[in-house]
Amino acid sequence: MLPWLSLRQFWFAFVGYLLFSTILFMGSSFTMLAWIVYLFLLLPVYGGLLIVLLTLTHRYRGWRLRVRSPLAIITGMTQILAIITSPGNCYGFKQGNQCYSLAQVWWGNVGEISFQNQPPHWTAIEQAFYPLLAIHVAMLLLTTVTLRRSSASV
Question: Whole-model pTM above 0.70?
Answer without folding.
Answer: yes
